[in-house]
Each structure stands twice: as C-alpha cells, then as structure tokens.
C-alpha cells in the first residue's frame, strides 16, 4: 500500500473509531532526497528563512468532534479547484489536533482579519484549550465552528488526504462559504503579522 493509501486508511480508521484518543500522532518520518555520499539536504534553518519571504494569509482550521470544538492556526491553505469546489490545507503529521479533525470528517477554514493576531496566537499554542473564552457558531452544513470576526469562512467535508513529507495534505469539498466585504486580511511574512497599507 502506498503513502496515499495509508493516509486514506488512517482517515477511515479515525472515523470508525469515533475517538480522537484512539490514535497517536504519527512519528516524524526519516526523509532523504539524496544518498549519504551525495550533497547534504537543504539546511532546515535556511529553508524556513528563505520560504519565509513568501507572504501568506492566516487561517484557523476548526472542527467539531465528539468531545467538542478543536482547531489550529494554519497558513498553509489554498484554493484547489473550482469544479468541483475544493480547498486544501497542510498539517504536520505530529499534530495532536489533526486526529480530531479527521475523526470529525469535516472542517471550517476561518480566514483571519487584520486585527485577529492574538486569536491566531492562541490557536498556535500546542496542548492548550484553544476555545477557552472563544465564542463560535456552527456552520450551516457541517456544524464546524465558525469564529466571530473572521472576514471569510469555508465549510468543508474531507475528501482525500495525501502524504507530503512530514506533513499531510488535506483536501476538502466546499459545502458552504461566506465573506464580509471590505475587511483587510491578516498577513504573515518573515515570522511577523502584518496588514495592507496604502
């Protein structure tokens, strides 16, 4: 069975188990693109530094499983297809939030606004109750948490999961979505939050 098959099997197992505690996070894989006697792989610090020059928006991916709401801050999000309507996000294979999202089988991408940096930081902390003191409303189709003040939200059902090195590539079919006009996005560039300026 290939990596894609294993990822799909993992999603099916998580849904059948119905419990996020039934599955441990996957260990970080040992990855090599070259042999030991060839040039060394790219230095991780240089990789982060150079790719940090690519500015992106920031989202919080949320889901509602049997134990309650869960979510994590995510900048690796993109639209994927118009027909059918698909989006994708990337999550670390070691994430403790991902098994709960996979068990739910659905998720909501909350696109953050320029003034939501603190909310993003609270969802970037591992192991904390990220929804403590955070109000939310269920999305119309899947019931995933929609966060207040987010300029846009995309309500999705998980369709496929692919492996991508030490991350998983999660593809979701868009079930419903909405946006608030004239709201600036939260931007992330070289380790810092920012916003548009004219």
Q: What would your notes on this structure say?
A:
It is built from 4 helices and 12 strands, in the order ααβββββαβαββββββ. The protein has 198 residues and is of the alpha+beta class. It has a domain at 3-20 and 62-181: Electron Transport, Fmn-binding Protein, Chain A (Pnp Oxidase, Chain A, Roll). It has a 7-stranded antiparallel beta sheet. It has a 3-stranded antiparallel beta sheet with strand order 1-11-12, with no helix packed on it. Strands 7-8 form a two-stranded antiparallel sheet. α1 (3-17) crosses α3. The N and C termini lie far apart (52 Å). The model has no long low-confidence stretch (mean pLDDT 83).
């Amino acid at each position: 069975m290939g990596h894609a098959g294993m990822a799909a099997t993992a999603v099916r197992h998580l849904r059948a188990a119905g419990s996020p505690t039934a599955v441990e996070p996957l260990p970080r894989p040992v990855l090599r693109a070259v042999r030991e006697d060839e040039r060394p792989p790219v230095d991780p610090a240089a990789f982060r530094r150079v790719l940090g020059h690519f500015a992106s928006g920031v989202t919080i991916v949320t889901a509602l499983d049997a134990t309650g709401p869960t979510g994590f801050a995510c900048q690796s999000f993109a639209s994927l297809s118009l027909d059918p309507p698909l989006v994708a996000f990337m999550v670390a294979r070691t994430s403790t939030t991902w098994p709960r999202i996979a068990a739910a089988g659905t998720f909501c991408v909350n696109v953050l606004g320029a003034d939501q940096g603190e909310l993003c930081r609270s969802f970037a902390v591992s192991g904390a109750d990220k929804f403590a003191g955070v109000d939310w409303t269920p999305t119309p189709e899947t019931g995933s948490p929609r966060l207040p003040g987010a300029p846009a939200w995309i309500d999705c059902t998980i369709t496929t999961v692919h492996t991508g090195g030490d991350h998983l590539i999660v593809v979701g079919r868009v079930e419903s979505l909405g946006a608030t006009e004239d709201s600036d996005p939260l931007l992330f560039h070289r380790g810092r939050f920012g916003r548009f300026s004219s």
